[in-house]
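Question thread 4412

I'm putting together a teaching handout and wanted feedback from people who do this every day. The idea is simple: show students a protein as raw sequence, then show them the structure tokens that encode its fold, then repeat with a second protein so they can compare. Below is the first pair exactly as I plan to print it.
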Amino acid sequence: MHVVADTTALVEDGVLAPEQALEIETRSRDVMIKLAVNAILCFGIIAATAGFIFWLANAVAVSITGVLMLVLGLLILAKGAEAYRMFGNSAILIGAGMLMGGASIELVDKYEQLAGWIMTPAGAFVTILGVWRWRSGALSAAFVLGAVILMGLSMHLIGIELLVMQHQIGSPLRNLILLYYAIAVATIGWMIDVRLVTALAIVPFAQMLETGTAYFHAAYVFYSPEPTLTIVQMIALITACLWGARKTADRDARHLRILAVLGFIVANLCALVGSLWGDVVGETIWGPGRYSDGYPDWESYRAAREAFRDQALTIPDGAYAILWAVVLAAVIIWSARHSQRGLFNAGLTFAAIHGYTQMFESFADRPLAYLLGGLAAIPLAWGVWRLNQRMRAHPS
């Protein structure tokens, strides 16, 4: 379990020897440097690959340059010193990215109707071949092979998405395809042990109920047409991940914990939506839907929506705000007791967002609400402090 500790204070208290504190600090610094190097390296490879493809803007030129980069990378790995392996790996990845990325762009641009049918199996073949070599232990460089697997997976998933758009596939098959995306991304992220990739699985998983984001001029938007059902979906994910994290090795548990934290973040964003507008549960799934496309006119759609709302489960915004506050308090206390730092930090962050939002949206002119909330917080803090003392005194 990763913890945050003040090594200087631990040395002063006699808990650690100075040499032990120095070793902890050195290892921590090494981890940060590795993260920085990998981030810069990945950015450079992606930028160089995209730059080559769009600068050359010719399928033959991109293919030739990609092959040359592959050959150059292999020569560096075969003949170069250990200190220069990073350049060899980078050249191989740029070459592979140019070949696969260039081919994909050429297919989409010139052969749109065939692109999905070619990219889906081609990407699957590259992914499966890479996974087989990874599982068989035939690793020349884990970083290179992992990156090639991700390229193949990206090509495969983009190919499927092209087919979905081409054939206008809707629910429920569309929802199952999004679930497949999430499982595929999470599985590959776990296999190559890159939590950033695992974390990306939350995007298609949340989109199963149309939750997502949008951007327009100077505004980033989060939307959730079904906040309550999405929260239930995320609670199921969080519960499964936390249960699995307790049963598996630390290497696997790290991936489950990152998904749990991201599920908690999405659930809180949905709760923010519900606390502002409330929720008519199921309106966009088994109700009349978000749009009036299936109705002869707007009046028919509005009548169907009003009829559905009259008999549907409706949660008002005020009830949502109160329930969200109670759940946040419970999660903060529980995560603090169980050293779940990710959930703890996310809980505190959303508690601040919740308080700030409600201060302006609901209680701007109601000072009594601040009085009651403040007075209630004091005994709550005292109770948590006393509970922690008792649990420290009686760990069993």
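The second pair follows. I'd like the answer to focus on this one:
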Amino acid sequence: MAQNWWAKGLIFENCNCQLVCPGHMHFDQLCTHERCIGYWAIRIDSGQYGDVSLAGLRAVIAFDTPQHMISGGWTEMILIDEASTQEQRAALQTILAGQAGGPWETLGRFVARRLDIRYVPIDFNEDEVSKSVTIPGLLKSVVTRIRGRDRSKPVLFENIFNQIHAPTQVLATGDTEYDDGVIRVKTAKSHGLFSNFEWRVEAS
């Protein structure tokens, strides 16, 4: 049965493209390299899937896509914090695998291969300038906002349409090491972003 659900929180990303990833602006743009490889890191501050609370959940989605992202053929790995309950895991993987409507259903149309979901310890750290995520043995990454003319303020994208990010996004660069045995990427000062998302689906 379809469920009403909503979630609010932090999302940040890093991929191997130069700043700014062309595919972030539109999937029909050619990314910097032959493959666009990176991740989205998600921390849900509040949310509900039916009767299941999503508050406090953390997840990472690693991806490997063609240079022309709209062509499809993506590979994805969903990693969910091991501190989650069975009910929370079922709810979150349903959402992130694109089976509950909303933005992840749209992105899911491009995914050809889904690697087995893993439940792992996910550690987030953040301040106004940087966001970091660590999964022991899998992922170590930090994204840091770039400097503007006024160094006390972030450089922003405003009024940007994106399925999973908020319309206002902080422009950043990222450094990442990730290897799950299939998807592998190592970046240095490449494309990064973060924003405060809000997703909502009302089942018909």
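Top answer:
Good format. For the second protein you could add a caption like this: The chain has three helices and 13 strands. The longest helix spans residues 86-96.
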